[in-house]
Amino acid sequence: MTNEAQGRPDRAVEMPKTVPLPGLEAYRADQQACAAAEEAKWQKQLSDYEAAKAKAEAEGKDAPKAPVKPVAKPEGDLKAPVPTEAQDPDLLRLKDVFGEAVEEFFEQAGECTAQIARDRILEVLRFCRQDPSMRFEMLADETATHYPAASDFAFSVVYHLASLSRSKRLRLRVLLPEGFELESATQVHRGANWFEREIFDMFGIRFLNHPDLTRILCPEDWEAFPLRKEYPVAGLGQRDIDFREDRSGRLTRRAQEQAGHSAINLKIPTAD
Amino acid sequence: MAVNASAVQGPTLLENILITTKVEKVINWSRATSVWPMTFGLACCAIEMMAAGASRFDFDRLGAGIFRASPRQSDLMIVAGTVSYKMAPIIKQLYEQMPEPKWVIAMGACATSGGPFDSYHTIQGVDKIVPVDIFIPGCPPRPEALIHAFMKLQDKIMSGSMADRYRDVFEAVEG
Amino acid sequence: MFGGTEYMEINMGPQHPSTHGVLRLKLKLDGETVISCEPVIGYLHRGVEKICENKTFFQGQIWTDRMDYCSAIGNNLGWAEAVEKALGVTVPRRAHYIRTLLAEFNRIASHLVWLGTHAMDIGALTVFLYTFREREEIMDLFEDFCGARLTTTAFRIGGLGQDLPAGFEKAARAFLARFPACIEEYETLLSENRIWKKRTIGVAKLNAEDAIALGVTGPMLRAAGVAYDIRKAFPYAAYAEMDFEIPTRTEADTYARYLVRMAELRQSCRIIAQCLDGLPEGPVMAKLPKSLKSEVVEIYHPTESPKGELGYYLVGEKGGTQPYRFHVRAPGFANLQSLAPMVEGGLVADVIAAVGTLDVVLGEIDR
Q1: How far is the C-alpha of C123 from the C-alpha of C113, rounded, in Å?
Q2: What is the predicted ipTM?
Q3: Hey, what long-range contacts does A33-36 have (CB within 8 A, 24 or more apart)?
Q4: pLDDT digit string, tens, across residues C325-366
Q5: CA nearest C154: which of C108, C98, C112?
Q6: Do A77 and C49 touch (CB under 8 A)?
Q7: Which chains touch C (3 or more CB pairs under 8 A)?
Q8: C318–A30: do the CB atoms touch at under 8 Å?
Q9: CB A176 within 8 A of CB A153
């Protein structure tokens, strides 16, 4: 197993240092911190200016230019979407019904997101599907993300629900620590079967009560979980196979006969 | 010295009714003009291979129109698409199932060297698994490029000889 | 001596005569009846999601072409809209119209591949040659616009890299004038053909309840009676301004899906004509800084690809030039789950018809 990063600095794995988990409180805290930092910088600029002005007067030189407070640039075609207070009736209803289980709920970029406590997710999925005012019939997608830089959780599993009759979408998010086994959504939506197998294959997250939790994309005997952040893009050396033979296999067979094997149990890699 | 007209002879009686050639040339010619490829499209290049076989570009006029499904009946394996780790042993098995003489064209960047997919599950080139005769660059190569490569393969077959083909193997085995 | 069952277990694929890519089906047969069918995928898994996490937002488009390779422009459109949603970019109206125009040409091209290969699998070889003839004309249009026939990488974040070239509109209108006659040609070959009807009516049925439970979308769902099309339900690009219908049927078998897709070809022609007629003037690219950085954001953008709901899930970090997570919800991935309930209890020859009617493209399923 070679590590391709050796001698190839562009292949080295760089672990992420931040936790980009969108959320209203996190956003507000971040905004406050940014504003405070801006304010502190402005104050420092002012005080630096005052000090420089005093020094210039003492030396008899011209006063330095006064600092100008930066004006916000006019918005062009680029305006990043930010989390806002939830006003969507679906989110409010979820919060009403489930109370504490809904840890966070907000809207961003025109989408509604609700973060659910990990032990209540099955109830919430069932409710979203069966409640007459919600009617989210289809599970459009289920996927996960790895957050190694986070302290109290390691993964987030997101469910994208779609209501065909009401033309609405909703995202449910669950945070899990390493090793936590989540209830399988196949108990509510049969289509979650392969989505959860892919999450298991790529991240190693196990699901309880899943009909067949095996690897789906990588072969059965694959080691490690590719979409985790510590896994390098070029892999751990499994792809460096080289079982090309001479054109007709004669040389190999000759060599094996000479070595005493009859070549019946020739070890070649198998498909599964 | 002027050309002596009487020195140039017309066809003899026998040459009017016979064609003489080497057996090897005839065999090479028949192999080159009726190469039967195997349907082995893996990814995007397969669509361009299908387009090459379809109405506008028409592979059939080169004698290669019949894509055989079974490797046992085909001469040529056009590896069109990305070779993944899971698929590699199957490619090898298919190559071994093809009877001699057999040729391989690696079509596209993925089959040549992994293409844009430098990832954990992609073999960087099908020549790590099977010996390749012609490589075609492109992502995907145009159907004209595939036809050009095929014609180069025909040249290779025509100018090859059976003795040359196995000489290396025999020398290695004996010496 | 022998095992207790009389069932035969055979492997269909990953290399097989039908040209659908590297799909392997583990079939358990009792004579000719299918007892169970288990699709095995992953033979074209190329790690696209992992690769795109290490590339900038701009570079990610390249790998999207190669997922659903029969309809690259549809993938590009989904990607462009998703990244623009994540970064908060406003795209000019002319670019939306041109994108819609190309996406509908792409829908026609993808359905032509579907028709050609589906008919070829069932035995109607002529249709393949006819459909690819029309597809070549569409690929000429794509090549005119962006330089590539198949893997187009046609769009840019914020609009288009260049405007429509001179002569494009004329060629497109010429195609539209000719194409309805071609659709009729295919229908003459197949729609009332006794053999086609016997091979497709009542074959591979999937009712609406099963389809919704399994997450099946696209023509498969519409043939089961559910009039759900993302272009109407969650409009994107210029679809809100277009006037078109969503063809549906109720029988939910292979013949119904064939009719739905043929009707979609006609609707696509209608949309293209409206785009050409109503093309607004203006720039085709938004004004953006050279290097695009995202904020902390998580978006899911669904689009209607010819196969169903194609969704892009992007997570961005603060000040990041690369996506933190890039996931594609491929329509084929969910649709293929419905293969097992569709063919179990049927004949083994109907498995071919079922795989054809699903319109699977393994590039997007395996990513």
Answers
A1: 15
A2: 0.90
A3: none
A4: 999 999 999 999 999 899 988 898 888 889 989 988 888 898
A5: C98
A6: no
A7: A, B
A8: yes
A9: yes
